[in-house]
Records
---
Amino acid sequence: MNKKVTVPYLIEQKRSGGKFTMLTAYDYPTAKALDEAGIDILLIGDSVGMVVLGYDSTLPVTMEDMIHHTKPVARATERALVVSDMPFMSFQISAKEAMRNAGRFVAEAGAEAVKVEGGEEIARTVSRIIGMGVPVMGHLGLTPQSVHQFGGYSLQAKNVEDAKKLIKDAKILEEAGCFSIVLEKVPAQIARIVTESVSIPTIGIGAGPDCDGQVLVVQDLLGLYEKFVPKFSKQYAHLGAEIRKAAGQYAKEVKAGEFPTQEHSFNADDSVLKALQDMEDAEKE
Ligand code: KIV
C-alpha cells in the first residue's frame, strides 16, 4: 500500500488481475488527502476547466492552467503516480510541440506521465513523447476535446463500425507504447472486449466494471460540482451542501456578534495598553 506507484507496477496489476484507482486532483490539500487514502493515480485532468474554472467545456484550458494545477498536486503526492492531461492544442499541431509540452509537465511541474486524447491519428506523436522517456496514457471513447465533432457528450462506440474502430485504436495505442488507456462513456460490453484485446491496463469512466482500473472526477465523487451529475458517477459525499451549511453558519454568527469570541482573539500587552491610555490622558490635559 505504501509502495510508490509506477508505470511497471500498473502493467503488473493488469497481469495479476488486480484493480486500481485513479481520481482527478487539481490542488495541494485534495491531492494530499487522495494520496493518503491510497488512490493509485492522481490525474490533473483538463476537466479542471469545467469543475474548477467554470468553463462550459475543456477546450479553453491552456498549458499554463495545467502546469499551474499540476505543481501543487505533484508537491502533495508521495505514493500515487502523477499524470497530467495534455490540453486542447498542446499536442495536435505537431509532434515537436507535443514533445515540448509533455517535457514541460515533467521538468517544470513534476508530473510523471501525460495523458492524450485520440487514437490512430496521434499514434506517431505518442511514440515520439514516449521516445523522450515520458510515459503516455491514452484516452478513447468520449474524448471531451472533440465535443463539437461528436455534437455533445453522448455515449460512444454504439454501432459496429465505431466499436471496431475503438478496438483498433486501443491496439494502435498499445503498439505506440501507451502504458494504459482511459475508456470514457462506452458500453460496458465493448469496454470489456477492449480490455481483453490489449495487454496494457484500461481505466474506465462510464465504461462498466470490467476495466482494469476506474477513474472519476473528484468533484463528482465529493458532490462539489452540482451543475451536472453524470449517470456513470457516484457521489460518495455532498460537500457542496456542507460548504453552504458551514458558510451560512459563519455568516449568521458574525452578524449576531457570536464570532469571533475571546477564544479566537489576541490580547495586547498591559504595558502597551497603559502607554496608549497615558497618551490619551496627556492629550486631554
Ligand atoms: O479531464 C479529465 O478529468 C479526464 C478524466 C475524466 C479521465 O480526462
---
Amino acid sequence: MAPWEYRDFDDHESVHVFRDTAAGLTAVIAIHSTALGPAAGGVRFWHYARGEDAITDALRLSRGMSFKNAMAGLALGGGKGVIVADADRRKTPAMLQSFGNAVESLGGRYVTAADVAMTDADMIAIGGETRHVTGLPPKPGMAGGDPGPATARGVFLGVKAAVARALGKDSVAGVHVAVQGVGSVGGRLARLLAAEGARLTIADVDGARAAQLAAELGAETVTPEAILTLPVDVVSPCALGGVLDEVTIAGLQAPIVAGAANNQLATAADGPRIHARGILWAPDYVINAGGIINVGLQYLGGTIADVEARVARIPDRLIEVWDESTASGEPAAIVAQRIAMRRIGRG
Ligand code: NAI
C-alpha cells in the first residue's frame, strides 16, 4: 500500500523510510505538520508483526504529536520516529548512529526524543550525530530532564479547573479523587492533591507501591479493577491508555475524569459516549502536556520558569475546549481535535 493510502495518513507533510542494511537499521519518520515549527515527537524501538504496522504506528503517533504540541502552545509541529526492531530486539550502536544520521538528513524538520524502549544513553548516542534531539539531561536552570514533575503539575491544575467547572469549588480540599496508577505522574499528582486537602483513593498493579503511598498520604487503596467505577468526585487515569471503553464508561460514577494517561479513549466512539453520560472529561493530550512542554522547551531554549509559566496555562486550554463543547453540544474529544487542527492551519 502506498503511504497516502493508509487510513491514518491524514495529509502528512512527509513520510520517510530509512534502511541501512550495514547498520541494521529500518526506521520510519513521519512528519504530520511543521506549520507551527519543527515536527517534534519521540522515537520508539518496537518489534512489529508486519512492516505496515510500523508505518501505521508512526502515522498515528505523529498526528497525535501535532495535536499535543499545538494544544501545548509550543512552536513545534508533530512528528514521530519508529525504529523497527527484529524479533530479538537487538539494538546496536551502529543502528542508533544511523538513526541519528537519518534525523540529521531531515535538516531540523524533525526533532527526536525518547519514547518506548529508548534510554537516555540511546538518545545521547543519537545526539552524537545530530543536534535535533531533545529530552537530554538538562543544564542548570534550563528546561529538560524527567518530564514527570511538569506533567503531574499540569494534571493537578487541570483537575482543579475541572473541579471548579463541574463542582463550583475553587479548591480540591475535601474533594474525593480516585487515582489509577501511582507511578511517576500519578504518585506526584496524589501528593499535590493531598497537600491541598483532597480525599484520596488510589490503586496500582504494584500493590506495595500503592500501600506505601497510601500510608504516607492517609489515602485508601482499592484494586485496579475497582478504581474507575468508585462513587468519587474525580477519576484520574494515570496508568495505561484505552481505559475508557463501553463498559468502564457505563460504570463511571464520578462527574469528572481527568488524568495523565495517554490515549485514554479505547475507540473514537468513546469520546461521544463519555459526553453523552454528562461527564466532564479532560482530553488527555491537553491535560498531560506538561511533559512535552518541558522536553519541547529544552529544544527551543527555555528555562524552568518558562516551563512553569506554560504549564500554568494548561487549564486555559481545557476551559477553551469545555466552553466550545458547551456552546456546540459536541464531545470534548471532538472539539479538542478541531481546535488543534485550527491551530495548525487545517481547520
Ligand atoms: P509510570 O510507569 O511511572 O507509572 C505507571 C503506574 O501505573 C505504575 O505504578 C504501574 O504499576 C501502574 N499501573 C500499570 N497498569 C495499571 C493498572 N491496570 N491499574 C493500576 N495501575 C497500573 O508511568 P508515568 O510516567 O507515571 O505515566 C503514566 C501515564 O501518563 C502513561 O499513560 C503515560 O503515557 C502518561 N504520560 C506520562 C508523561 C510523563 O511525563 N511521564 C507525559 C504524558 C503522558
